[in-house]
Amino acid sequence: QTTVIEIIIEELNTHDIKLLICDAGTGIPEDVLAKDEDNIFNLGYVPHNQGVMNEHGFGLKNALALLTSGFEKNFLLLTKPRGVSDILGVEGPISDEMEMANYKETDWKDGLIQLRSVESGTKISVEVKREYFNSIYGRGQSFETLVMRLGEHLGVMYNQYINEGNEIYFHYKSKAATDFTKKTIPAIPVPFLKSPTITIMTNTIEV
Questions:
Q1: Cα-based torsion angle of the residue sequence 154, 163, 183, 143 in order, rounded to the nearest 10 degrees
Q2: Which has the closest alpha carbon to 11: 171, 135, 137?
Q3: Nearest 5°: phi and psi at 125?
Q4: What is the pLDDT of residues 154-193, one digit of tens each?
Q5: How far is CA 119 from CA 24, 48, 116, in A?
Q6: Beta carbons of 41 and 90 less than 8 angstroms apart
Q7: At 43, phi and psi to the nearest 5?
């Protein structure tokens, strides 16, 4: 089953970046989000049933720690578990004590363009320091250059994912713009994939 990811990047007047990432997957079940012992925000959390990606339990937390510059910025994670009418959420930064709360449909739709009305999925919004955003590409520090480099990187890194029919929507807006530029990330093959000696192994990930 194919799925859709939406990435929205907005340059704020402070020059910092507002980042919103959303998917239309199965969402995060309440027990995985809020269980005292084995919730996804516990350090080193590993799912009971290991997936094909050999999860070690640090991906989400590491990403949020980096994006928030060591928890200096806040984030909001919202999820709509498949088959459940509730919208659950956790507000950061990551700490020893975090609370799950119920959110409204308007909270889910806020800021989204493509995935406002999905039945299930997960959405993360976070404000990123400009210094971290600039690390995308050292030789060009303009907002437009950085988002173009990021788009190219996504096309290369997720070439196989996109070729399998999945979609990545990529929307961005500079502080001088009046509206978002809306694009879809294309699959960008890297040269070694054209070699007849290369064998590609794929796994099916259930979403």
A1: 10
A2: 171
A3: -120, 135
A4: 999 999 899 999 999 999 999 999 999 999 999 998 776 5
A5: 8, 25, 9
A6: yes
A7: -65, 130
Per-residue pLDDT tens digits for 36-77: 566 666 555 555 555 444 444 446 666 776 677 656 668 899
pTM: 0.81
Sheet containing strand 87-91, strands side by side:
100-103, 87-91, 75-80, 121-128, 17-23, 4-11, 167-173, 181-184
Closest alpha carbon to 137 in 155, 152, 156, 158: 152
Buried b (16+ CB within 10 A) or exposed e, 96-130: eeeebeebeeeebeebbebbeebebbbbbbbbbbe
Residues 6+ apart with CB under 8 A from 64: 75, 92, 93, 94, 124, 126
Residue 75 token pair: 């984030």
Parallel, antiparallel or unpaired: strands 121-128 and 17-23:
antiparallel
